[in-house]
Amino acid sequence: MTETESVESFRLRARAWLAVNMPRLADVPPPASDEDDIGEWLRARELQKKLYDGGFAGICFPTEYGGLGLTPAHQRAFTDESDGYEMPLPLNLPTFAICAPTILDAGTEDQKRDRIGAAIRGDEVLCQFLSEPSGGSDLAGLITRADRDGDTWVLNGAKTWSTSAYAADWALCLARTNWDVPKHHGLTMFLMPTKAPGVTMNRVRMVNGSLEFCEEFFDDVVLPASAVVGEVDGGWAVASRQLFHERNAMGGGSPYVSGKRGHGGMSHVGPAAVAAALRRSGDPRVRELVGRGIALETVARQTSARVTRAIASGALPPTAASLLRLLHAEVSQLNDDLSLKIAGSSAGFGNAETPGVTGKAGVGFLMRQGGSLGGGSTEMSRNVISERLLGMPREAALDRDVPFKQVKRGR
Amino acid sequence: MELELSSDQKLFQTSARRLLEKEYPLDRVRGLKDGEPRWSRDWWRQGAELGWAATIVPEELGGGSVSGEGVRDLVLLAEELGTGVGPGPLLPVNVVLAGLVEAHGTGSDHTDTIEALVAGERVATWAVYEPGGEWNPLTPSLSASRDGDGYLLDGVKDRVQDADQADLLLVTAATPDGPAQFLVPAGTPGVTAAPQWSLDLSRTFNEVTFTGVRVGPDTLVGEPGATGPVERQLQIAAIVQCAEVCAVLERAFAMTVQWGFDRYSFGRPLASYQALKHRFADMRTWLEACHATTQAAAAAVQERAPEAATLVSVAKAFVGERSLLILQDCVQIHGGIGVTWEHDLHLFLRRATLDQALYGTPEDHRLRLADLATPDL
Questions:
Q1: Which residues of chain B lie closer than 8 angstroms to A302, CB-CB?
Q2: Which of A325, A411, B31, B148 would you call most buried, defined as having the most Cβ atoms within 10 angstroms of its Cβ?
Q3: CATH topology (fold) of B124-221
Q4: A310 touches chain B (CB under 8 A)
Q5: H or E segment at A381?
Q6: What is the ipTM metric for this complex?
C-alpha cells in the first residue's frame, strides 16, 4: 500500500468488520469470579487473534513489526467503533501501552520483530519486573543483580507489584549490572521469559481479595546476551521510557491502547450506590455527601482534560501529569470515605454470607490508600510538583553521585 | 484562566486591566473608608464603553462580545476584577442582564433598559436574598399582591450589592401565580436602601426595604412562575464568582510561592522544607483544578449545554470550598504577617469568603448536584 487509508474509510471498514466478527458486549456473560481470571486472559488472546486476522491489530505499531503503521486518529476511530463489542482490554495494560512501545523505543530489530509481533498476533503477553520488595519509591535503588558469565547473564534477586505477570510470557526486567557507579548508571534492562528456569512466581493477595499483582524470585536465572534491551548499564534510559508510556497511558494519551476501558471494577461500590441500597438517597445529609463525590469526580475529569491539553501544547511541562495523579488519588480516597460514611452503622457488614453493598463499602475502605500508592506514592508526586513545576529546592539525597555499593541500605 | 486567548480577547483583557489598575491599585482598596463610594458612575461608564456590560447580550439588543463567546469574555473580565479585588457592579449588572435577555420575548419589553445597562448609562442589581435566609431564589417571602393591574410589593431584601448606587433593582417576589421578578426603579416611593456591613472592603452591600411599593405590570420580567431566567442569573453569577476567585487564588498563590523562596529560617528558604513543599503541591493541584472546572462550566453555560446547571454547581462547590483552604494555607505559610492589615492577603480572603457564601454555598451546590443527578427524589 503506498497511500495511507483515510480515517473515515478506515472507520467505515472497521464498523463493518466489527459487526460481523466481534461479539457484542450485550451477549457476553459477565466473568465468573474475581479470584482467578486466567480465563479472561485466554479469552483476550483469542479476541486479539481475531483482530489480527481481520487486519485491525496493532493499529499504531509499524508494519515491519506486525502493526498497521497508521495514525492515532485511526486508532481513536477504531476505539470509537469498537464501543459495545467485546475487546481484548486486558492486553492494553501493560502489554500494548507500556511494554511494546518501550521495546519499540529501545529494543533490537529482533526484539521488536519477535516480541511486538507476537503480542499483536495475540500469541504473547508482556509484563514488567521493576519494583522490588526492598524498594518502594526509590526505583533506581533496586538490588536485583545481573552478573556476566561468559556470553550470558545470571540474575538473582526479587521483584514485586508486577501487574498480571501470571498471565504474561515475557517481562521487561531491570537489574543492576554495575555496583561501582551511581545508582542510575549501573542498571540494565532485560527481556526475561516469565517461565525461565529459576523464576518462582507468587500471586500477591490484596486486602480486597484482588490477585492482580505478583512477586517473583530469581535464583540463577540465565539469560543470553541478546536479552539486553538498550545498552548495558543504560537501563535507566529504557525504564524512563517505560515510565513515560505508563504516565501517558494513565492520562488516556496512549496511541497503542485499543478499545474503551470499562467503568470501575466489579467489587468497587460508590457513594450513590450505597445511598440507593440503604434507601438513604432522600436524606439531605446523605445527598450532600453524594454531591460532594459528584463534584470532585467531575473536577478531576475536567482537570485531566485541561492538563493533558496544556502538556500537548507545551503550556505545561510533562511533569504536570503529577497534578492529575494527585487529584485522582484524592478522588479515590474521597469515594471510599463517602461510601463508608453513607453506609453509617451498616459499614463493613454484609447480608447473610455475602458482603453486599455495605460490606463492599467496608472492603473498599480497606483499599482506600491504594490509589495513593500504586504507580508511585502521592508523596513522590508532591515532590515532583514542588520541585519540577514550582522550582523549589530538591530533597537531599545521600545516594547522589555516590557509587551504589557505598550507598546505605536497609535490611 | 483560559489556556489560549485570541488577540481580540487579549486586547479586551488588557484594556480592562488598564482601567482597573489606574483606578484601583490594592493600596487604594485597602484604604477605602466606610461609607465612601467604592466606584463612580463615570468610571463604570468607561468600563461599559470597553464592553463590560455587553458580553452576554446579543447584538440585536445592543450587546456583543469580542470572541463571539460572551460568557468566556465575561470570565476574562471577572478574572481581571479578581486579580485586583476590584470594585464595581460587574456581577450585579451582568446578572440582571442575563435575566432580562433570558426573559426577552416573554412578558413586558425591557429592550430600552437592556440597552441602557449595556451602555453603562444605568446600573441594576439583583435583590434576591432576604434577611436570615439561605439561598432559595424561588421561594421569596417578599410578597407581590395584586393592586389594580399592577402589584404592591412588601418585604425586605438584603445582601444586595451596590443597591445604593443602582438605578434599578431586579426583585424576586411571591405573586399569586408563583415566584416572579420585578424590575423596580430604586427611586420608587416605598423603596429604602440602608448600608449593610460586609467583610469585603471593595464592595458595598445594602438592605433594601419595600413598603407598599406600587409597581406597574410593565415592571414584571418574564412570566410569573417561569424559572428559566433565575437559573440563568444564578449560572452567570456563579461563573463570575468562580472566575474572579480563580484570579484571586492565582495571585495569592504566586505571592506565597515567592515568599517561600525569599523567606529564610534556620539558614534555608521555606521552599526547601518538604512539609511546606507538599502543601504547595496540593495548592498548585487545587488551583489547576479550580481553573479547569471554572472554564468547563463557562463553556457549558456559553453553549447552553444540557449539563450547564450541573457543571456550574460543580465549579461553585469546588472553587468555593478549595479557595478558602488555599487562602488560609497561604496565610499560614506567610506566618504572622499574613494576618496583618498591611498585608494584601486579607483583601483576597475577604473577597473569596463572600463569594463562597453568596449565590449558593458549597453545601447548597452539593445538594443541588445530588438533586440534578437523581431528579426523582
A1: 289, 292-293, 295-296, 314
A2: A325
A3: Butyryl-CoA Dehydrogenase, subunit A; domain 2 (2.40.110)
A4: yes
A5: helix A378-384
A6: 0.93
